[in-house]
Write a structure and sequence with these properties.
This protein has 20 helices and 18 strands. It is of the alpha/beta class. The protein has 3 domains: 114 residues, 3-Layer(bba) Sandwich (Glucose Oxidase, domain 1); 106 residues, Enzyme I, Chain A, domain 2, CATH 1.10.274; 280 residues, Alpha-Beta Barrel (TIM Barrel), CATH 3.20.20. Helix 1 crosses helix 5 and helix 4 packs antiparallel against helix 5. The longest helix has 30 residues. The relative contact order is 0.11.
Length: 556
């Protein structure tokens, strides 16, 4: 072990800086049972029970992740859950059990073989899927062995050193308070790296085998911007810090065009992270964080207090609160129906309108929060498909205000708008813009429905990812409608957080980009390098493109 000074160079994948003592993390190892199993019927039953237990764990973890980080990151866990239902994977394990193997080696061998086949493709997103297969494979083996979930102690002030990290590892280490992550191997596009960026957790990969030589407990400094780990650095406070890539404030192009960078959040801590990252406001507050995992609907005053706390943390910056966007398959929420395809079922505004009393309670809570907070609170409705739905939801805001007035509560006026994430509504953007006070482009769902590709299905998700030409033409239509009506329009979703697409959004005329707080510094820096007139020309060329690759070429 090396206890003196040591500097290692790697690749920065999540910005920020961390100092603390080294903590070597090694993924849980399990001793697979011998290949000889017992009664095949019993082994098959044990496998079925372990698969169901793994599904429950992943659903719970996905709920926690969605509440904290949003649906995009929760989709990583939801995709893992789908592997548990993969017919080829399950049938291969059953076949080995029938040949006399125990459930654990039968399952693990199949997961390893599937991962190797996927990894052989040699490019993303397949490499991340291979990691997910091993992650979920190990989870099932652990359950078959009867071991409890792995936990680590308090890692506050610790920089975690590891050979490799999977998505579930990052979630566990972040929950334990790790200040930063240093990895021998790794990939910048892995789900582990994606989650680290979403949580604002500094991470450097590719540090090599020498990382193993850093002594346990040795003081280290991790540079998540420059891609370095230094052992025995000069004394400094331990913990995590974030140094933005550009000065906080409005993003401004080289020729003086200002672009507002807002944040997508799901908690008061998220609001504080947004402020630290230099966000000018919150374009999307996911209110599901109050519902997930509770098994009940929170009370009106409980909701109001939570919204007010977030508004206060923003210090007067605008806060757009999205009403509940929860599908019927989510646990602990407003609905209990089981649906074959929840993405197309009773979710978003559809579920809210089906339960008007619960919806009115949420609207009253938002109006209550707007009253004492002194902030700029606004409302937006999710997954609106028709003008009838929009008008029905908008009218209930007035009903909620009247209900408060009857109690002697004078609720202030708030701007009320709509998420544009259903292609049918996007085609009616001119009618919507004439009535709504603000519009938000939800590109994650808009792309999913436009391309008929489930974004949680790893086999087809790529169809809805990236700057699809059809999506850009639909976005242009919404931008034109908002501009003609003089209504503010923001773009939310993963595409807004991609620095490589900043030129596209600036060129299309979008003035507000809303993203995870961790993405703000990099997007701000990308915008500062742009010329708005060049961006307009590039966007016009993109709108003539027929493929994603052509779009990306036009943006270079």
């Amino acid at each position: 072990m090396i206890t003196g000074r040591l500097g290692l160079a790697g690749q920065a994948v999540s910005p920020g800086a961390a100092r603390g003592r080294a903590f070597h993390y090694r993924a849980a190892e399990f001793a697979a049972p011998t290949a000889e199993g017992g009664d095949p019927a019993l082994e098959r039953l044990r496998l079925e029970r372990a698969l169901e237990a793994a599904r429950r764990e992943l659903r719970e973890l996905a709920g926690e992740t969605e509440a904290r980080l949003g649906a995009g990151d929760a989709g990583i866990l939801e995709a893992q859950e789908q592997f548990l239902q993969d017919p080829a994977l399950v049938e291969s394990a059953r076949a080995r059990i029938a040949e006399g193997q125990a459930a654990a080696p039968a399952w693990w061998q199949g997961a390893q073989e599937a991962a190797e086949q996927v990894r052989a493709i040699g490019e993303e997103p397949w490499l991340s899927r291979a990691d997910d297969l091993l992650d979920v494979g190990a989870r099932v083996v652990r359950l078959l062995s009867g071991e409890p979930r792995r936990v680590v102690g308090d890692l506050s002030g610790r920089v975690v050193l590891a050979r490799e990290l999977l998505a579930s590892d990052v979630l566990m280490l972040a929950r334990a308070g790790a200040a930063g992550l240093a990895v021998s191997g790794g990939s910048p596009t892995s789900h582990a790296a994606i989650l680290a960026r979403s949580m604002g957790l500094p991470m450097v990969i590719g540090l090599g085998e020498a990382l193993e030589q850093v002594a346990e407990g040795q003081p280290v400094a991790l540079d998540g911007d420059g891609g370095r780990l230094d052992a025995q650095p000069r004394a400094a406070p331990s913990g995590r810090s974030r140094q933005p890539l550009a000065k906080p404030g409005r993003a401004i192009t080289r020729d003086g065009r200002a672009i507002s960078l807002w944040a997508n959040i799901a908690s008061a801590e998220g609001a504080r992270r947004a402020v630290r990252a230099g966000a000018e406001g919150v374009g999307l507050l996911r209110t599901e964080f109050l519902y997930l995992g509770q098994g009940r609907l929170p009370g009106e005053l409980e909701q109001a207090a939570a919204y007010a706390e977030i508004a206060q943390a923003l210090g007067g910056r605008p806060l757009v609160i999205r009403t509940l966007d929860q599908s019927a398959d989510k646990r602990g929420g407003a609905t209990t129906r089981q649906e074959a395809n929840p993405a197309l079922g009773l979710r978003g505004i559809r579920a809210s309108l089906a339960q008007p009393e619960a919806f009115l309670a949420q609207l009253r809570a938002i109006l209550r929060a707007a009253r004492p907070s002194g902030g700029d609170i606004r409302i937006t409705f999710p997954l609106v498909s028709t003008m009838e739905q929009w008008r029905a939801a908008r009218e209930l805001v007035d009903v909620a205000r009247a209900g408060l007035a009857a109690q002697g509560v004078d609720a202030p006026p708030v701007a009320v708008g709509c998420m544009v994430e259903v292609p049918g509504l996007a085609l009616l953007a001119d009618a919507l813009a004439a009535e709504a006070e603000l519009l938000s482009l939800g590109t994650n769902d808009l792309a999913q429905y436009l391309m008929a590709a489930d974004r949680d299905d790893p086999m087809v998700a790529a169809l809805g990812a990236g700057p699809q030409p059809a999506l850009l033409r639909l976005v242009e239509r919404v931008v034109a409608a908002a501009r003609a009506a003089g209504k503010p329009l923001s773009i939310c979703g993963e595409l807004a957080a991609d620095p490589a697409l900043a030129k596209l959004w600036v060129g299309l005329g979008l003035g507000v980009l809303s993203m995870e707080p961790a993405a703000i510094p990099a997007v701000r820096e990308a915008i500062a390098l742009l010329d708005a007139r060049e961006a307009i020309r590039a966007a016009e060329e993109c709108l003539r493109c027929a493929t994603v690759e052509q779009v990306r070429t036009a943006l270079r």
